[in-house]
Amino acid sequence: MDPLQLPSIQLPGSIELPRPSLEEPVFPAPSHPLLVPPSVPPEKPPKPPQAVDQSARDATQQLQKQVRQLNDNIKAQQITIDLLVNPPEIEAIEAQKPATVTVPGTSLEFALPTSEVLTVAATTAAVAAAASVGATLAAQNLVKVLKPVFQTALKKLAKLRGKDPETFGRRRLRLRRSKE
Description:
The chain contains three helices and two strands. By secondary structure, it is mostly helical. Among the domains are: 52-86; 113-179. A two-stranded antiparallel sheet has the order 1-2. It is flat and about 110 Å long.
Protein backbone atom coordinates (compact mmCIF):
# COMPACT_ATOMS: atom_id res chain seq x y z
CA MET A 1 0.00 0.00 0.00
CA ASP A 2 1.35 3.43 -0.95
CA PRO A 3 1.88 6.01 1.76
CA LEU A 4 -0.83 8.60 2.21
CA GLN A 5 -0.43 11.47 -0.26
CA LEU A 6 -1.74 14.78 1.03
CA PRO A 7 -2.83 17.42 -1.50
CA SER A 8 -0.59 20.47 -1.73
CA ILE A 9 -2.18 23.79 -0.97
CA GLN A 10 -0.66 27.08 -2.16
CA LEU A 11 -0.96 29.70 0.55
CA PRO A 12 -0.39 33.41 -0.11
CA GLY A 13 2.87 34.93 1.06
CA SER A 14 3.24 36.77 4.32
CA ILE A 15 2.22 40.39 4.66
CA GLU A 16 4.98 42.81 5.60
CA LEU A 17 3.70 44.90 8.48
CA PRO A 18 5.65 47.73 10.11
CA ARG A 19 6.81 47.05 13.63
CA PRO A 20 4.65 49.07 16.04
CA SER A 21 6.22 50.88 18.93
CA LEU A 22 5.04 53.42 21.45
CA GLU A 23 7.28 56.19 22.59
CA GLU A 24 7.62 56.73 26.30
CA PRO A 25 6.09 60.03 27.35
CA VAL A 26 8.62 62.60 28.43
CA PHE A 27 7.61 65.00 31.13
CA PRO A 28 9.61 68.09 31.98
CA ALA A 29 11.44 67.98 35.27
CA PRO A 30 10.04 70.31 37.92
CA SER A 31 11.95 73.54 38.38
CA HIS A 32 13.12 74.24 41.90
CA PRO A 33 13.90 77.64 43.42
CA LEU A 34 17.54 78.51 43.84
CA LEU A 35 19.10 77.21 47.02
CA VAL A 36 20.74 79.53 49.46
CA PRO A 37 24.41 78.65 50.05
CA PRO A 38 25.06 77.11 53.46
CA SER A 39 27.36 79.99 54.52
CA VAL A 40 24.30 82.24 54.79
CA PRO A 41 21.82 80.96 57.37
CA PRO A 42 18.34 80.79 55.80
CA GLU A 43 15.43 82.36 57.57
CA LYS A 44 12.95 79.74 56.31
CA PRO A 45 13.58 76.44 54.55
CA PRO A 46 12.73 76.62 50.84
CA LYS A 47 9.30 75.29 49.93
CA PRO A 48 8.90 72.57 47.31
CA PRO A 49 7.45 73.75 44.00
CA GLN A 50 3.69 74.06 43.99
CA ALA A 51 3.30 73.29 40.28
CA VAL A 52 3.81 69.49 40.53
CA ASP A 53 2.01 67.59 43.28
CA GLN A 54 2.60 63.99 44.34
CA SER A 55 -0.55 62.61 42.66
CA ALA A 56 0.61 63.98 39.29
CA ARG A 57 4.02 62.34 39.77
CA ASP A 58 2.34 59.04 40.67
CA ALA A 59 0.11 59.24 37.61
CA THR A 60 3.15 59.98 35.43
CA GLN A 61 5.05 56.99 36.82
CA GLN A 62 1.99 54.78 36.31
CA LEU A 63 1.67 55.89 32.67
CA GLN A 64 5.36 55.27 32.03
CA LYS A 65 5.07 51.79 33.56
CA GLN A 66 2.05 50.98 31.35
CA VAL A 67 3.88 52.18 28.22
CA ARG A 68 6.89 49.97 29.10
CA GLN A 69 4.56 46.98 29.56
CA LEU A 70 2.88 47.67 26.20
CA ASN A 71 6.27 47.88 24.49
CA ASP A 72 7.30 44.57 26.08
CA ASN A 73 4.05 42.95 24.90
CA ILE A 74 4.58 44.28 21.37
CA LYS A 75 8.13 42.92 21.31
CA ALA A 76 6.96 39.50 22.54
CA GLN A 77 4.21 39.40 19.90
CA GLN A 78 6.70 40.39 17.19
CA ILE A 79 9.01 37.54 18.25
CA THR A 80 6.07 35.13 18.07
CA ILE A 81 5.12 36.40 14.60
CA ASP A 82 8.74 36.08 13.44
CA LEU A 83 8.84 32.47 14.67
CA LEU A 84 5.57 31.68 12.91
CA VAL A 85 6.66 33.26 9.63
CA ASN A 86 10.18 31.80 9.73
CA PRO A 87 10.02 28.65 11.86
CA PRO A 88 13.34 27.24 13.09
CA GLU A 89 14.74 24.09 11.54
CA ILE A 90 13.89 20.94 13.47
CA GLU A 91 16.59 18.33 13.69
CA ALA A 92 15.61 14.81 12.73
CA ILE A 93 16.05 12.32 15.55
CA GLU A 94 16.55 8.69 14.68
CA ALA A 95 14.40 6.34 16.72
CA GLN A 96 16.31 3.68 18.59
CA LYS A 97 15.36 0.07 18.02
CA PRO A 98 13.59 -1.20 21.14
CA ALA A 99 15.23 -3.96 23.15
CA THR A 100 13.68 -7.37 22.60
CA VAL A 101 13.57 -10.58 24.61
CA THR A 102 13.37 -14.04 23.07
CA VAL A 103 11.36 -16.64 24.99
CA PRO A 104 13.66 -19.64 25.62
CA GLY A 105 12.75 -22.73 23.60
CA THR A 106 10.61 -20.76 21.12
CA SER A 107 11.12 -18.28 18.34
CA LEU A 108 8.89 -15.65 20.00
CA GLU A 109 10.33 -12.17 20.50
CA PHE A 110 8.78 -9.48 22.66
CA ALA A 111 9.74 -5.80 22.70
CA LEU A 112 10.61 -4.39 26.13
CA PRO A 113 9.30 -0.92 27.04
CA THR A 114 11.87 1.80 27.63
CA SER A 115 12.65 3.09 31.09
CA GLU A 116 10.75 6.34 30.38
CA VAL A 117 7.58 4.42 29.49
CA LEU A 118 7.89 2.28 32.63
CA THR A 119 8.43 5.36 34.80
CA VAL A 120 5.39 7.14 33.37
CA ALA A 121 3.20 4.04 33.75
CA ALA A 122 4.29 3.41 37.36
CA THR A 123 3.83 7.06 38.32
CA THR A 124 0.38 7.19 36.72
CA ALA A 125 -0.70 4.01 38.49
CA ALA A 126 0.54 5.25 41.87
CA VAL A 127 -1.16 8.64 41.51
CA ALA A 128 -4.42 7.02 40.38
CA ALA A 129 -4.42 4.61 43.32
CA ALA A 130 -3.65 7.38 45.81
CA ALA A 131 -6.36 9.62 44.35
CA SER A 132 -8.91 6.79 44.48
CA VAL A 133 -8.17 5.95 48.11
CA GLY A 134 -8.19 9.64 49.06
CA ALA A 135 -11.49 10.28 47.30
CA THR A 136 -13.09 7.23 48.94
CA LEU A 137 -12.00 8.33 52.42
CA ALA A 138 -13.15 11.89 51.80
CA ALA A 139 -16.58 10.70 50.57
CA GLN A 140 -17.04 8.39 53.57
CA ASN A 141 -16.17 11.17 56.00
CA LEU A 142 -18.51 13.59 54.24
CA VAL A 143 -21.36 11.09 54.47
CA LYS A 144 -20.69 10.59 58.19
CA VAL A 145 -20.75 14.33 58.80
CA LEU A 146 -23.50 15.47 56.44
CA LYS A 147 -26.07 12.66 56.83
CA PRO A 148 -27.13 13.62 60.37
CA VAL A 149 -27.25 17.29 59.36
CA PHE A 150 -29.55 16.57 56.42
CA GLN A 151 -31.73 14.22 58.48
CA THR A 152 -32.16 16.85 61.18
CA ALA A 153 -32.95 19.53 58.62
CA LEU A 154 -35.50 17.32 56.86
CA LYS A 155 -37.19 16.44 60.18
CA LYS A 156 -37.48 20.13 61.09
CA LEU A 157 -38.85 20.89 57.63
CA ALA A 158 -41.43 18.10 57.97
CA LYS A 159 -42.51 19.46 61.37
CA LEU A 160 -42.89 22.95 59.89
CA ARG A 161 -45.09 21.52 57.12
CA GLY A 162 -47.25 19.82 59.75
CA LYS A 163 -46.20 16.23 59.01
CA ASP A 164 -45.00 13.87 61.71
CA PRO A 165 -41.50 12.64 60.82
CA GLU A 166 -40.85 8.93 61.20
CA THR A 167 -38.50 8.09 64.09
CA PHE A 168 -35.60 5.68 63.79
CA GLY A 169 -37.34 2.96 65.83
CA ARG A 170 -40.61 3.16 63.85
CA ARG A 171 -38.74 3.07 60.56
CA ARG A 172 -36.80 -0.02 61.66
CA LEU A 173 -40.02 -1.72 62.74
CA ARG A 174 -41.70 -0.91 59.41
CA LEU A 175 -38.74 -2.29 57.45
CA ARG A 176 -38.69 -5.48 59.54
CA ARG A 177 -42.42 -6.03 58.96
CA SER A 178 -42.05 -5.48 55.22
CA LYS A 179 -39.37 -8.22 55.03
CA GLU A 180 -41.66 -10.83 56.57
